[in-house]
Amino acid sequence: MVNSPMLDRQVQASGKVLPANLRFRALVPGLLGAGWRTLRTGGWRLLALYAATQALLLVLFSPLIRWMFTEALAAAGLHAVDSAALASILGNGVSAAWIAGLCVMAVLGVCVQLTLLVLAAARVRAGLSLKPAALARELVPVLRRLPSPGSIPLVWYLFLVLPLAQAGFFSVLTHSIAVPNFISGELLKSTPGVIAYVVFLLVIGTLGTRFAAALPIFALGKVSGGRAMRLSWRVTRRTDPALLVAGAAAVAAAFFAGALLVAAALLPTLAADLAAPGLAAVTAAFALGAAQVGGVVIAGSLVMFLAAMLIELAVRSLPVLPADLVLSCGAERDGTFAAGEGAARTIPADGPLPAAKAATRRSRRGGILVTAAVVVPVLVLGGLNIQLMEGLRQVPQTLVLAHRGFSDGGVENTVSGLKAAADAGADLVEMDVMQTADGGFAVMHDASLSRLAGRGESVKDLTLAELTAITVHDQQGHQDTIPSLEEYIRAAQEFGQPLLIELKMHGGETEDYVPRLVAELESLDALRGNIYHSLDKDKAEELKRLRPGLYVGLTMAVAGVAAPETTADFIVVEEASYTDAVRKSAWSKGKEIYVWTVNGTGSIRNMLRDNVDGIITDHPDTALRDRGAMGPEEFMSTKLYDAVMRFVLIF
Q: What pLDDT does 362 receive?
């Protein structure tokens, strides 16, 4: 083995002197150079391994996890999940066991994939082969340490902290893990909420960076996950600025490559739009296939580049780490890394060793195989995409609903916000109804007045007269008074604006909340001119039972694999819970599907392309503009752009 003198390491570890190769000016180019050398040397072999692990998780793990979730529902006597059903699922022993099993399966899949990729990058760095048998021999001992209690912090870092820190693209199982929009969106509507959200992002980002070296130390250092995280914290204490700069440069390069990929995909389709419109759909289908393969290449390159950077950081940090820590890989030759100038002994700075060069020559001889591995998926995906692109010719019938009115023109749930939504042309305005202390009804979303009025009172503790005398304001400088239900309904009738009325609960309602609301709406001649929904399943179904002719929806903050069994006419799902499976399930049961709160430009266009029955958005003007531009006359290149942004992994 080749090691730095133990005495030198002990002195450096106990002192405050940072080794020269860990200082910012040396570390940034060193990290980028290590990433580039590893990617250049490993080439298509690393990318093939990345693609294979993603495909395995997508084809094997994802269906297995969905099946386990279905079994968990079945054990609780359910076919779908909503927020009201969660207690039933977790309260059933068999269901809870299935849920625990699928969590273990998901975590195991992510940990195995990321560990394998780190080991592969280390083997390329050491000039070793990437044969499956050799990788398996290295992976097995690491996996034996994974179930130990000491590794639990590392497991949750990989599965939860990294995705929340915007690094979920590492694995197909974590790319959708994020703070739901309905939570972040609510936080961003008030100054304290913005501060809380920014603090959260700073904390999660700091944790993501400070523990970044934990996985390579765990995989190569034969230590527990907990110790690897403690050592990573020590490693990044003074090197995290360099790590952030180098990582940002790598991500920026990947997104630049992604922009070039989009341009390369769009140009042939744009040419077909202009010169041969009849061929545009087929051209777009195969261009999308090429972009999908290209996206995997770019994403895989970024992941392996970052893995190599983190290995380099861990190796360079050996002088400041405990003397008993040795980073090594490979059983077929001496694969121990030395601290030295930060390079592995087996990969000098001027290029790979003969074994790596031989591997490079073999990769060149396998050029035909590599080409086939790229061309065949492009052709297969292109063929599958033809039906997709042809389907995008339809004109969306999606209703656009302004979420609590239109905040560009007034405070949410006020008459000014309602008028702004009506002026923008919204199909419906979604609004909230709460009951006051004296049994009246006011238009209000929050149970507390703290966010909109800066007051500590609750809606349930104020009379209708007291509540409607209060002025509310928003971050855009608008202000208005809280309207009574009658005032709001009268204004909507004046503007000719249909409403989606949400029955909003704060916990202090009278038992006759629904009959009382029905009576008030009937007295205003507004019961049948609007539609309704509620997060409270009992209230939604009670309204449907009292007035079967009304159009009533069930709102689901958490949606599972299918639409729930309900007497409601439609379901409203939160954007993070929306899936093709839930949409198709709702339609198969004769129910419409609405999605809330859809605010991102890409998300709005995706929902319109899917032709969901309605989208509830804070930006009805954008949604109406996009809906009006879609249809048979729209260039296929525009449709392709939406498809690329939705189906290509790098985005």
A: 54
